[in-house]
Amino acid sequence: MAAAAVAGKRTAQKLSSIAQSWAVDPFRPNLQLKTFLESLAAHPRLTPQAVTAARALRDNDMSKKYPLPDKMLHPPSMPHHYDRLVEAFEKSAQGIGRPWWKIFFNVW
Fold first, then answer.
1. Whole-prediction pTM value?
2. How far is CA 64 from CA 17, 36, 58, 61, 85, in A?
3. φ and ψ at 100, to 5 degrees?
4. C-alpha to C-alpha distances, 108 to 1, 83, 92, 102, nearest whole angstrom
């Protein structure tokens, strides 16, 4: 029984370290995945599979294992759509908005 308690504590410590390294979401300051993972680390029935899943999410393993092809990221109809979307997301996180005239004339 003591070995199970030590393994459970070690699993909780791993999940806590994953939670500490999780990036803060600037768009939802009251709802952070980091807080959820920290509270999950205290759960008595925490499994190693949950810790592995959290680590895979943090390290973006699926995106590395199954990368999107360039044809999907740059469709012929709107080749810069996703690049602009990422740029807008990053600028919005910094508090930089598009000027009204760019919105009005649909200029990027």
1. 0.76
2. 22, 25, 12, 5, 21
3. -60, -35
4. 62, 11, 14, 6
Are residues 58 and 75 both part of a single domain? no
Confidence of residue 1 (pLDDT cuts 50, 70, 90): low
Residues 75 and 97 in one domain: yes
Chain position carrying tokens 């910094």: 94
What is the number of other CB atoms lying within 10 angstroms of the CB of residue 36?
A: 13
d(CA 73, CA 51): 31
DSSP-assigned states of every residue in 17-71: HHHHTSPP-TT-TT--HHHHHHHHHT-TT--HHHHHHHHHHHHTHHHHHSPPPHH
- The domain in which residue 92 lies consists of 68-108
